[in-house]
Every structure is written in structure tokens, then in C-alpha cells.
Amino acid sequence: IREEFRQQVVSADVWTVDAARGRPLVGEAKGLYVLSKATGRCGYMKPTKRSGSGRTRAAYEKIAADLAFELGLSVPPAVLYVRTDARPNEESNVVISLIPASPILQLKHYNNATAVPIITEIEALLKAASDIIAFDAWLENTDRNNRTNTIFSGETNKAAYFLDFANSMNYSRGWHGEGFMKFSKADPKHELFIRGLTCESVCNAACRIDALPDAIIRDIVNRIPDAFLSLDAKKNHVDWLLWRQKMLCEKFDDW
Q1: 97, 158, 187, 188: which could form a disulfide with 154 (CB 3.0–4.6 Å)?
Q2: Distance from CA of residue 61 to its chain's centroid?
């Protein structure tokens, strides 16, 4: 499925609201749980809330998911989608991230956990995925709120997955001018996540990012439809990402 979503840019499937999970419409993007009419797969669709700021949230989520796939990082696969059922005040150009069919557990659900086996397991899952910190640094993800956008899935092969890259890259024009040269300090926010971080894992991820071929980065960005990200914006994002890729290891102490 990950490979399939990586190859797709815009889904031709019909996605409908998942009646069993309802319409969560929570958070800034007011996301929805959806189901694929063709496959029955579960997804999380956003943003439904229309933004007048010109932000390209759906494109950022797709770019991040595809880059993460190439790097072997724990980010759910995603496809772009054009809604035909969008209400007048809702966004029609959205992204759908694949999510588990079982109930989703977020890190915030373990805030009050005291059982040692549970805490130990969560720490181990987060430690295994701690290389996301290097990815966040590359994309300048400003919203790594791990209480709500870290999910856990699986029964026999449990894993932690990281959502939400809408507030990354040129979010709020943060990369314009010389802004793309700035590397912000990592801010994981959650103690369990911080305790699981390992320098070796983060450094290895930074090395993988550094080794990612330029052609793959260019293709991932440039194949985004113009309706989701303009031609000029795609050119800028390729240039910015390539510069930051080459500087990521050199600027390690900054982030």
C-alpha cells in the first residue's frame, strides 16, 4: 500500500465520510475520517477548513509523505484528492493519509499511564522512530506536537507513526528571503518522546537525507499539480529543500 500511495499523486478513487467514526472536525485543519469506496481503506482527510492565507497544506503533507517513504521514516503514506462534496466553506483540494482501521491511539492517551510495561513499550516504539527529528529539521516542521500527532497502530507489529506536516517548509512564508537558511531547535514537547531519542538514530537519518538523490526530491515536488502548488512555488521549494539537505549535517548543532 505504501508503494501504491507513493506512486499515486492524486487519487481517482471516491472517498466518503466514515459514518462509524463520525466527523471529528477537530484541530486547525478540521480533518475528517474517510473510507475508500473501491478498497474500504481508512484515511484521514484534511484540510476541510478553507484558508484564505494561500497556504498549501495538502501539498506539504504529500511531499512529506513521499520523502519519508524514500527515507524509510514512520510517516503514513498519503495521496492528494479533489473533493466533489466540499461544502461552500470547505476546501476541495485535500490530502488523505492512510490510517489503521482499528481505533487510533495517540500519545496523549498515555499521559497518565503508570503501568511500567505500557510505559516501557511506548518508549521503545518512540525510540525506534526517533529519527523523525532529523526529518522535522530538514522540513522545518514547526508543529511536532507529539501529544496529538503521534499515533500507534498494529497488534503484533506495533509502531509509532507521525502525522502533520502542514506547518512545515514555507509555512507562513517562513522560507522567503533568507528564512530557508534557518534551522530551529528541535522541540519534541513530550517527555516520553524525549527520553527515547538517540543521537545515533537521528544522525543516521540525517545521513540518509543527505544521500537522497536530487532527482528524487525534484520529482516529488514537481509532480504536485499546479492547483495544489504553483509552478513558481515548486521551483522555490526544490531550491530550498536541496540547500537545506546539503546543510543539514553541517548545521546539526543548530537543531
Answers
A1: 158
A2: 5
C-alpha cell at 219: 520529482
Looking at residue 186, what is its pLDDT? 80
Distance CA 247, CA 167 (A): 21
Average pLDDT, integer, range 38-53: 83
Q: Give the C-alpha separation, 129 to 161, whole Å.
A: 8
Cell, residue 215: 532527482
* pLDDT tens, residue by residue, 62-102: 999 999 999 999 899 999 999 998 888 889 999 999 887 66
| Best-predicted range by mean pLDDT (82-91, 120-129, 135-144, 220-229) | 220-229
DSSP sequence for 25-90: --TTTT-EEEEETTT--EEEEE--B--TT---HHHHHHHHHHHHHHHT-S---EEEEE-SS--TTB
Specify whether the CB–CB gap between 17 and 23 falls below 8 A.
yes
Query: 47: which 3 cell numbers?
Result: 484540510
